[in-house]
Specification:
262 residues; two-stranded antiparallel sheet; 9 strands; alpha+beta; 52% helix; five-stranded mixed sheet; single chain
């Protein structure tokens, strides 16, 4: 089966059909749709599900209401496909708040469809609203939560190591002043200074994980655990980082108006 960035043609077509159905049923226009989970991060297993996230806009009259309607579209989740979207005004508000999840979606290597001019305009605003302080706290909290939730037993699911390692490397990236952390784990890893033995351990585990099923368990890895514990302990006392967010709200307003009225 032909695959593009880890998504075979059959699944890609299924996703596009789902998005078209959303547009017709909810009377919206999908501006951007991407992978947000392990396939976007670059460490999917052969049986990993698909986590599709999208941004959409309503016709102008939708915005002329006293009470704001629901601004999220969620499709029923099945064993293979999870689809969820955020309305455009909501997305722009999240960018104003330097939301790391939204910023991460925009860096996904797997894009199903997009309005290129609109999304290019959105991406151009990201550096103006990115907050190292907020991003660092987001990724540190994610790593701590995932470690406590998934890596406490003698036998652990292999995939869960990457749900802790990835945000920890993102923390390092932000603390080093490199700006927005890349979505792909391989890019984060390439930009991280790690001991050779630790890097070898991560590379070996990544190769094994990509060949194994999602539910595969293995013994706790002492070297990885030691690194994770040390990073979590270090992260309890965060460095002084800027909140930044030097964007102009009028630019967000203009992008909202232009997109809605198009």
């Amino acid at each position: 089966m032909m695959r593009e960035n880890g998504v075979d043609a059959t699944m890609r077509e299924r996703v596009l059909q789902q998005l078209k159905a959303v547009e017709q049923r909810d009377n919206v226009r999908v501006l951007y749709a991407c992978e947000s989970g392990s396939r976007g991060w670059g460490f999917a297993s052969p049986d990993s599900d698909y986590d599709v996230r999208f941004l959409y806009v309503h016709p102008p009259e939708w915005y002329l209401r006293v009470e704001a309607p629901r601004d999220v579209i969620e499709l029923p989740i099945d064993d293979e496909l999870d689809v969820c979207g955020w309305e455009w005004r909501k997305a722009l508000g999240l960018l104003k708040g330097a939301n790391p999840t939204l910023i991460e979606w925009l860096d996904s290597p797997i894009v199903y469809q997009q309005d290129e001019a609109t999304i290019d305009a959105l991406k151009a605003l990201v550096p103006k609203w990115f907050s190292p302080l907020r991003a660092r706290w987001h990724y540190y909290s994610m790593a701590r939560k995932n470690f406590r939730g998934y890596l406490q037993g003698g036998e652990v699911r292999l995939k869960k190591y990457f749900y802790v390692l990835r945000p920890l490397l993102a923390v390092r990236w932000v603390e080093a002043g490199k700006g927005v952390p890349p979505m792909r784990f391989a890019d984060l890893l390439a930009g991280s200074e790690l001991d050779a033995s630790l890097r070898q351990e991560i590379d070996e585990l990544l190769e094994r994980k990509q060949r194994a099923g999602e539910a595969m368990y293995g013994p706790r890895r002492p070297l990885l655990h030691a690194f994770i514990l040390a990073e979590l302990a270090r992260g309890e006392t965060p460095p002084a980082l800027p909140d930044s967010r030097e964007g102009d709200i009028s630019e967000l307003d203009q992008l909202l108006m232009t997109t809605v009225m198009r």
